[in-house]
Structure prediction request, 247 residues.
Amino acid sequence: MVNKCMILGHRGFSAVYPENTRLAFRKALNLGIDGLEFDVQLTVDEVPVIIHDPMVNRTTDGHGLISSMNYLQTQQLNAALDKPEHGFQTVPALHDVLNDAYEVCPEGIYNIEIKVYNDDWKTLIDRVVTVTGQHPLRKRILFSSFHHKCLEYLKASYPSFEIGLLFDREIVEPWYIAKQLKAYSVHLDYQFTSEDIISDCHAKQVPVAVWTVDRPEQIERFIHLNTDFLISNVPDVAKRIRENFAN
Ligand code: G3P
Ligand code: MG
Prediction:
Protein backbone atom coordinates (compact mmCIF):
# COMPACT_ATOMS: atom_id res chain seq x y z
CA MET A 1 0.00 0.00 0.00
CA VAL A 2 2.82 2.41 0.90
CA ASN A 3 5.51 3.66 -1.49
CA LYS A 4 6.32 7.22 -0.31
CA CYS A 5 5.08 9.68 2.28
CA MET A 6 1.43 9.53 1.30
CA ILE A 7 -0.58 12.67 1.92
CA LEU A 8 -4.15 12.17 3.12
CA GLY A 9 -6.57 15.08 3.40
CA HIS A 10 -7.86 15.16 7.00
CA ARG A 11 -11.67 15.34 6.76
CA GLY A 12 -10.94 16.27 3.12
CA PHE A 13 -9.38 19.65 2.26
CA SER A 14 -10.82 20.90 5.53
CA ALA A 15 -8.70 24.01 5.99
CA VAL A 16 -10.58 25.62 3.10
CA TYR A 17 -13.80 23.61 2.59
CA PRO A 18 -16.41 22.39 5.09
CA GLU A 19 -14.98 19.31 6.82
CA ASN A 20 -16.20 15.83 5.96
CA THR A 21 -18.28 16.96 2.98
CA ARG A 22 -18.25 15.69 -0.59
CA LEU A 23 -16.96 19.10 -1.63
CA ALA A 24 -14.00 18.92 0.75
CA PHE A 25 -13.22 15.39 -0.44
CA ARG A 26 -13.40 16.25 -4.13
CA LYS A 27 -11.25 19.37 -3.64
CA ALA A 28 -8.64 17.34 -1.75
CA LEU A 29 -8.44 14.64 -4.42
CA ASN A 30 -8.28 17.24 -7.18
CA LEU A 31 -5.02 18.44 -5.64
CA GLY A 32 -3.48 15.17 -6.78
CA ILE A 33 -2.75 13.94 -3.26
CA ASP A 34 -2.82 10.27 -2.28
CA GLY A 35 -6.15 9.94 -0.51
CA LEU A 36 -8.43 10.94 2.34
CA GLU A 37 -9.11 10.47 6.02
CA PHE A 38 -12.70 10.80 7.23
CA ASP A 39 -14.95 9.81 10.13
CA VAL A 40 -17.90 7.44 10.00
CA GLN A 41 -20.92 6.97 12.26
CA LEU A 42 -24.41 5.47 11.92
CA THR A 43 -27.77 7.15 11.71
CA VAL A 44 -30.62 5.61 13.71
CA ASP A 45 -31.73 3.71 10.60
CA GLU A 46 -28.16 2.37 10.32
CA VAL A 47 -26.87 4.30 7.34
CA PRO A 48 -23.11 4.98 7.59
CA VAL A 49 -22.58 8.74 7.30
CA ILE A 50 -19.50 10.92 7.46
CA ILE A 51 -19.34 13.28 10.42
CA HIS A 52 -16.83 13.78 13.23
CA ASP A 53 -18.72 14.69 16.41
CA PRO A 54 -21.48 12.66 18.07
CA MET A 55 -23.65 15.81 17.95
CA VAL A 56 -24.39 17.64 14.71
CA ASN A 57 -24.27 21.05 16.44
CA ARG A 58 -20.71 22.17 15.64
CA THR A 59 -20.63 21.37 11.92
CA THR A 60 -24.26 21.69 10.83
CA ASP A 61 -27.25 23.97 11.34
CA GLY A 62 -29.03 21.22 13.31
CA HIS A 63 -29.00 20.05 16.92
CA GLY A 64 -28.75 16.67 18.58
CA LEU A 65 -27.09 13.32 18.19
CA ILE A 66 -26.48 11.99 14.70
CA SER A 67 -27.29 8.53 16.08
CA SER A 68 -30.82 9.69 16.95
CA MET A 69 -31.61 10.96 13.43
CA ASN A 70 -32.66 8.96 10.43
CA TYR A 71 -30.84 9.35 7.14
CA LEU A 72 -33.53 11.52 5.56
CA GLN A 73 -33.39 13.90 8.51
CA THR A 74 -29.61 14.20 8.17
CA GLN A 75 -30.06 15.21 4.54
CA GLN A 76 -31.92 18.35 5.64
CA LEU A 77 -28.86 19.55 7.55
CA ASN A 78 -26.41 22.03 6.10
CA ALA A 79 -22.93 20.73 6.90
CA ALA A 80 -21.24 23.92 5.67
CA LEU A 81 -22.04 25.85 8.84
CA ASP A 82 -18.50 27.14 9.45
CA LYS A 83 -17.84 28.00 5.79
CA PRO A 84 -21.16 29.36 4.48
CA GLU A 85 -19.52 30.71 1.32
CA HIS A 86 -19.67 27.12 0.04
CA GLY A 87 -23.46 26.99 0.08
CA PHE A 88 -25.45 23.97 1.16
CA GLN A 89 -23.48 20.77 1.75
CA THR A 90 -25.02 17.58 3.06
CA VAL A 91 -23.74 15.19 5.69
CA PRO A 92 -22.59 12.61 3.15
CA ALA A 93 -23.36 8.91 3.11
CA LEU A 94 -20.29 6.68 3.06
CA HIS A 95 -21.57 5.05 -0.09
CA ASP A 96 -21.67 8.38 -1.98
CA VAL A 97 -18.23 9.40 -0.76
CA LEU A 98 -16.74 6.14 -1.99
CA ASN A 99 -18.45 6.49 -5.35
CA ASP A 100 -17.08 10.03 -5.77
CA ALA A 101 -13.61 8.88 -4.70
CA TYR A 102 -13.66 6.00 -7.14
CA GLU A 103 -14.52 8.40 -9.95
CA VAL A 104 -11.80 10.93 -9.12
CA CYS A 105 -9.02 8.76 -7.72
CA PRO A 106 -9.51 4.98 -7.95
CA GLU A 107 -5.89 4.42 -6.92
CA GLY A 108 -6.26 6.49 -3.72
CA ILE A 109 -5.95 5.37 -0.11
CA TYR A 110 -9.08 5.85 1.95
CA ASN A 111 -8.58 5.92 5.70
CA ILE A 112 -12.01 5.48 7.24
CA GLU A 113 -11.93 6.36 10.92
CA ILE A 114 -14.61 4.54 12.88
CA LYS A 115 -16.02 6.87 15.51
CA VAL A 116 -17.34 4.90 18.46
CA TYR A 117 -19.56 7.01 20.68
CA ASN A 118 -21.88 4.29 22.02
CA ASP A 119 -21.91 0.59 22.88
CA ASP A 120 -23.39 -0.64 19.63
CA TRP A 121 -20.11 -0.63 17.73
CA LYS A 122 -20.60 -4.10 16.27
CA THR A 123 -23.58 -2.85 14.29
CA LEU A 124 -21.49 0.13 13.16
CA ILE A 125 -18.72 -2.16 11.91
CA ASP A 126 -21.13 -4.57 10.24
CA ARG A 127 -22.97 -1.78 8.42
CA VAL A 128 -19.76 -0.08 7.32
CA VAL A 129 -18.42 -3.37 6.01
CA THR A 130 -21.68 -4.00 4.17
CA VAL A 131 -21.16 -0.73 2.29
CA THR A 132 -17.42 -1.10 1.71
CA GLY A 133 -17.24 -4.87 1.17
CA GLN A 134 -18.80 -4.79 -2.30
CA HIS A 135 -17.26 -1.53 -3.39
CA PRO A 136 -14.54 -1.41 -6.09
CA LEU A 137 -12.41 0.62 -3.65
CA ARG A 138 -12.46 -2.12 -1.04
CA LYS A 139 -8.74 -2.91 -1.43
CA ARG A 140 -7.88 0.77 -1.09
CA ILE A 141 -9.51 1.14 2.33
CA LEU A 142 -7.66 1.35 5.63
CA PHE A 143 -9.89 1.39 8.70
CA SER A 144 -8.72 3.10 11.87
CA SER A 145 -10.10 3.83 15.30
CA PHE A 146 -9.12 4.85 18.81
CA HIS A 147 -11.42 2.00 19.92
CA HIS A 148 -9.08 -0.96 19.50
CA LYS A 149 -11.64 -3.52 20.56
CA CYS A 150 -13.83 -2.59 17.63
CA LEU A 151 -10.85 -2.93 15.29
CA GLU A 152 -10.11 -6.35 16.75
CA TYR A 153 -13.68 -7.36 16.01
CA LEU A 154 -13.41 -5.96 12.49
CA LYS A 155 -10.20 -7.87 11.75
CA ALA A 156 -11.53 -11.11 13.24
CA SER A 157 -14.84 -10.89 11.36
CA TYR A 158 -13.55 -9.45 8.08
CA PRO A 159 -9.86 -10.41 7.86
CA SER A 160 -9.35 -9.15 4.32
CA PHE A 161 -9.67 -5.54 5.50
CA GLU A 162 -6.63 -3.69 6.85
CA ILE A 163 -6.78 -1.85 10.17
CA GLY A 164 -4.68 0.96 11.68
CA LEU A 165 -4.48 1.62 15.41
CA LEU A 166 -5.06 5.22 16.46
CA PHE A 167 -3.26 6.54 19.56
CA ASP A 168 -3.77 9.96 21.13
CA ARG A 169 -1.05 9.69 23.78
CA GLU A 170 2.60 8.86 24.07
CA ILE A 171 3.16 5.20 23.44
CA VAL A 172 6.53 3.47 23.61
CA GLU A 173 6.10 0.46 21.37
CA PRO A 174 3.00 0.96 19.24
CA TRP A 175 4.29 -1.65 16.78
CA TYR A 176 3.98 -4.30 19.49
CA ILE A 177 0.26 -3.69 19.91
CA ALA A 178 -0.09 -3.57 16.13
CA LYS A 179 1.42 -7.03 15.83
CA GLN A 180 -0.84 -8.37 18.57
CA LEU A 181 -3.97 -7.01 16.91
CA LYS A 182 -2.86 -7.89 13.36
CA ALA A 183 -2.93 -4.22 12.41
CA TYR A 184 -1.34 -2.97 9.23
CA SER A 185 -0.33 0.43 10.63
CA VAL A 186 -0.20 2.72 13.66
CA HIS A 187 -1.67 6.23 13.53
CA LEU A 188 0.10 8.51 15.95
CA ASP A 189 -0.52 12.02 17.23
CA TYR A 190 2.43 13.88 15.68
CA GLN A 191 3.17 15.62 18.98
CA PHE A 192 4.20 12.30 20.52
CA THR A 193 5.99 10.89 17.50
CA SER A 194 9.77 10.76 17.65
CA GLU A 195 12.32 9.67 15.09
CA ASP A 196 13.01 6.59 17.23
CA ILE A 197 9.38 5.49 17.32
CA ILE A 198 9.16 5.75 13.53
CA SER A 199 12.36 3.81 12.96
CA ASP A 200 11.35 1.13 15.52
CA CYS A 201 8.02 0.69 13.73
CA HIS A 202 9.78 0.47 10.38
CA ALA A 203 12.22 -2.11 11.75
CA LYS A 204 9.16 -4.20 12.63
CA GLN A 205 7.55 -3.57 9.21
CA VAL A 206 4.74 -1.50 10.67
CA PRO A 207 3.85 1.62 8.64
CA VAL A 208 3.30 4.88 10.54
CA ALA A 209 0.66 7.54 9.95
CA VAL A 210 0.91 10.88 11.75
CA TRP A 211 -1.98 13.24 12.39
CA THR A 212 -2.84 16.09 12.16
CA VAL A 213 0.19 17.82 10.69
CA ASP A 214 -0.40 21.34 9.41
CA ARG A 215 2.65 23.45 10.24
CA PRO A 216 5.13 23.51 7.32
CA GLU A 217 8.17 22.77 9.50
CA GLN A 218 6.41 19.72 10.96
CA ILE A 219 5.28 18.54 7.54
CA GLU A 220 8.87 18.78 6.35
CA ARG A 221 10.13 16.94 9.42
CA PHE A 222 7.79 13.97 8.96
CA ILE A 223 8.53 13.72 5.24
CA HIS A 224 12.22 13.74 6.10
CA LEU A 225 11.62 10.95 8.67
CA ASN A 226 10.04 8.74 5.98
CA THR A 227 6.68 8.67 7.66
CA ASP A 228 4.36 6.52 5.59
CA PHE A 229 1.17 8.60 5.81
CA LEU A 230 0.84 12.26 6.65
CA ILE A 231 -2.70 13.31 7.54
CA SER A 232 -3.21 17.04 7.10
CA ASN A 233 -5.89 19.73 6.95
CA VAL A 234 -3.64 21.53 4.44
CA PRO A 235 -2.89 18.81 1.88
CA ASP A 236 -2.03 21.52 -0.69
CA VAL A 237 0.83 22.76 1.49
CA ALA A 238 1.96 19.21 2.27
CA LYS A 239 2.05 18.29 -1.40
CA ARG A 240 4.10 21.39 -2.27
CA ILE A 241 6.59 20.63 0.49
CA ARG A 242 6.90 17.02 -0.63
CA GLU A 243 7.54 18.16 -4.20
CA ASN A 244 10.26 20.59 -3.06
CA PHE A 245 11.75 17.85 -0.95
CA ALA A 246 12.03 15.52 -3.94
CA ASN A 247 13.91 18.14 -6.02
O1 G3P B 1 -7.43 9.82 12.03
C1 G3P B 1 -6.68 10.87 12.55
C2 G3P B 1 -7.51 11.88 13.27
O2 G3P B 1 -8.61 12.21 12.48
C3 G3P B 1 -7.98 11.41 14.63
O3 G3P B 1 -8.61 12.40 15.36
O4 G3P B 1 -10.48 13.72 16.23
O5 G3P B 1 -9.45 14.36 14.07
O6 G3P B 1 -10.85 12.32 14.22
P1 G3P B 1 -9.91 13.23 14.94
MG1 MG C 1 -10.64 11.49 12.16
Remarks:
- DSSP finds nine helices and nine strands in the chain.
- Strands lie at 6-10, 35-42, 48-50, 109-114, 141-145, 162-167, 185-189, 208-211, 229-232.
